[in-house]
């Protein structure tokens, strides 16, 4: 299969997903294979939501919208232009996926197939309904994909390379188990934001998207902020307040109530507004419904600290603080060329 054929198939998939990116799902007349796949995918969305309480309609729709916007001719060509993807000797690449947010492993899936390899997917039980169905759409759009995509629930075997994502504990297991194979092993990372006290209310409204989207379960979600000494949190709480309906979701509310009770019984100092808490803490990974914060006095010293801890950080959100910063509100809208952990997966796949 030629590279352009693979690109064309994913462009068609983007057109298909675009139908599901609005609050009201509407079937388009110009999308290929709709008669075969449209109704079935609506059913898969329902199953995904029923199976995982964190996968709400809003969060699934947000993920589908992001991928429909990414899978365009312009974006795919821009992404792949720097690489020499010509004569590829297809290898079997295993992907072990996380299940924290909808379609969280799709970029790895896309990368393996677009580079010309075959993919062997082991999904998380938390996110098992959407990707197999989209894979069938791909095979229908481009029959040459048939035989190149395999899903398994069994032990991963007969593969040439692996991309595996998990917790810090499972990452150690992955590193041991896959030590004889070319691999990308990802573990827990979190994202942070740097505030200076000069942010506008709009900046903080945008930051709330980085905090609350997907209930904060993604590695690109901001779980900690750094603020200057004597920072007033009044504007921060005002900027995030429009997310208050989130506490009406039972799973979120249960976590909020539980963590609040733990903090109160432990007599920890924290601030809260009825649906969200902030707590001074040096850790990066904060519980659901909680954001950690830490004070800083010197920007250059903070940059040094963040550099020393860069292996624990996925994104830095700020406004004029550091070179590779991400704008407020943009963490959950990565481009195709924004690689997890800063590891170029296409470069890795072309080298195996």
Question: Care to give the gist of this entry?
Answer:
InterPro entries: Ald_DH/histidinol_DH, CoA_reduct_LuxC. With 352 residues, this protein is α/β, with parallel strands linked by helices.
CATH superfamily of the largest domain: Aldehyde Dehydrogenase, Chain A, domain 1
Number of domains: 2
**So how many helices?**
12
* Uncertain runs: none
What is the N-to-C succession of helices and strands? HHHHEHEHEEHEEHEHHEEEHEH
Q: How many extended strands?
A: 11
Give the CATH level 1 class of the largest domain: Alpha Beta
CATH topology of the largest domain: Aldehyde Dehydrogenase, Chain A, domain 1
Pfam family, one: LuxC
InterPro entries: Ald_DH/histidinol_DH, CoA_reduct_LuxC
Keywords: NADP
Protein name: Acyl-CoA reductase
Q: What order do the helices and strands come in, and which of them pair?
A:
Layout: H1 3-18, H2 34-51, H3 57-70, H4 73-80, E1 92-96, H5 106-114, E2 118-122, H6 130-141, E3 149-151, E4 161-165, H7 168-177, E5 183-186, E6 190-194, H8 201-212, E7 222-228, H9 234-240, H10 250-265, E8 270-272, E9 277-280, E10 290-296, H11 299-308, E11 313-317, H12 345-351
Parallel strand pairs: 1-2, 1-4, 2-3, 4-5, 6-7, 6-11, 7-10, 9-10
Antiparallel strand pairs: 8-9
Helix pairs in contact: 1-3, 1-6, 2-6, 8-9
Please give a structural write-up.
- The protein has 352 residues and is of the alpha/beta class.
- The chain has helices spanning 3-18, 34-51, 57-70, 73-80, 106-114, 130-141, 168-177, 201-212, 234-240, 250-265, 299-308, 345-351; strands at residues 92-96, 118-122, 149-151, 161-165, 183-186, 190-194, 222-228, 270-272, 277-280, 290-296, 313-317.
- The strands form 2 sheets. A 6-stranded mixed beta sheet has the order 8-9-10-7-6-11, sandwiched between helices.
- A hairpin with a 4-residue loop joins strand 8 (270-272) and strand 9 (277-280).
- Helix 1 (3-18) crosses helix 6.
- The longest helix has 18 residues, at 34-51.
- InterPro entries: Ald_DH/histidinol_DH, CoA_reduct_LuxC.
- It holds the Pfam family LuxC.
């Amino acid at each position: 299969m030629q590279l352009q054929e693979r690109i064309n198939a994913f462009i068609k998939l983007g057109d298909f997903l675009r139908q599901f990116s609005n609050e009201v799902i509407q079937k388009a007349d110009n999308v290929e294979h709709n008669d075969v796949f449209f109704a079935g995918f609506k059913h898969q969305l329902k199953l995904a939501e029923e199976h995982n309480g964190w996968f709400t309609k809003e969060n699934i729709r947000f993920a589908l919208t992001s991928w429909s916007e990414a899978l365009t001719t312009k974006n795919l060509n821009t992404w792949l232009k720097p690489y020499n993807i010509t004569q590829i000797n297809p290898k079997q690449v295993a992907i072990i996926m996380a299940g924290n947010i909808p379609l969280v492993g799709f970029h790895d899936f896309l990368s393996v197939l677009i580079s010309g390899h075959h993919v062997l997917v082991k999904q998380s039980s938390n996110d098992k309904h959407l990707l197999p169905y989209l894979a069938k759409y791909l095979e229908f759009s481009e029959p040459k994909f048939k035989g190149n995509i395999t899903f398994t629930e069994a032990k991963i075997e007969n593969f040439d390379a692996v991309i595996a994502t998990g917790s810090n504990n499972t990452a150690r297991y992955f590193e041991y188990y896959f030590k004889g194979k070319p691999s990308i092993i990802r573990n827990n990372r979190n994202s942070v934001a740097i505030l200076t006290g000069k942010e506008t209310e709009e900046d903080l409204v945008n930051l709330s998207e980085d905090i609350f989207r997907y209930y904060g379960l993604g590695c690109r979600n901001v779980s900690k902020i750094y603020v200057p000494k004597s920072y007033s949190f009044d504007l921060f709480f005002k900027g995030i307040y429009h997310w208050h309906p989130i506490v009406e979701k039972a799973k979120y509310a249960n976590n909020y109530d539980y963590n609040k009770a733990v903090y109160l019984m432990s007599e920890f100092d924290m601030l809260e507004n009825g649906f969200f808490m902030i707590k001074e803490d040096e850790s990066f990974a904060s519980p659901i419904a909680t954001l950690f914060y830490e004070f800083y006095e010197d920007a250059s010293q903070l940059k040094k600290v963040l550099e020393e801890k860069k292996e624990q950080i996925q994104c830095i959100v700020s406004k004029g603080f550091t070179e590779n910063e991400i704008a407020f509100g943009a963490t959950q809208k990565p481009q195709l060329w924004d690689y997890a952990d800063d590891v170029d997966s296409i470069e890795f796949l072309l080298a195996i």
